[in-house]
Amino acid sequence: MESVWNYRALLFDGAMVTVQLALGALLLSVLLGLIGAMAKLSHNRLSQKLAGAYTTLIRGVPDLVLMMLLFYGGQQILNDVGELTGLWDYLEINQFSAGIFSIGFVFGAYMTETFRGAILAIPRGQIEAGIAFGMTPMKIFRRITWPQMVRFALPSFTNNWLVLVKATALVSVIGLHDLVWNASTAGRSVREPFTFMFAVLMIYLLLTAVSDVGLRWLDRKYSVGVRQV
Length: 229
What we know:
By secondary structure, the chain is mostly helical. The chain has 9 helices and no strands. It has one domain: MetI-like (MetI-like fold), CATH 1.10.3720. Helices cover 81% and strands 0% of the residues. α2 packs antiparallel against α3 (45-60), α4 (63-85) packs across α5 and α7 runs antiparallel to α9 (193-222).
């Protein structure tokens, strides 16, 4: 493991990129998930169909294929539009932005189903009671819907987050210098790929353990006053 210690700075830099990528993708996926869930639960048929098509597409296409399409195809489409309209010159999407957008876009579909199921689990009578008391839609969401939605969504959200963290390893394919890329480069340079991949395994396990502690705390926070069966 001496070689791993010698490359500790490179591995640390890669781990920080991985963490930033995961958090950025998580924020985007939560935003898309909330929008998608609201669209599926709305009375607008067009919104329902668009949200349904979004989740169906994501669940039917491998994550790596979507990432490659968004990174290469999305950049080409943006530049073609800019050339046709004259609104902008050549745009180059860097690997980090592409990673956040592609992973966030993929997991936004999973978050959509997570939040939709959580909202449906809230007793309808509580929403009707809020309306009867004259609460605004925003106040109903903040005081009734959101706290219970978080509690009901946490088990599935936890699973989505842990899978998302692992999915960040895919961005090494498009050249982002994340943990996997840096470890692979270092491993090849000293001809010890297994040793460095084992170090990557341990770092991902550490990230998972820290995430588990944080999510358990969040679960306790939103379960205060709830009788445990």
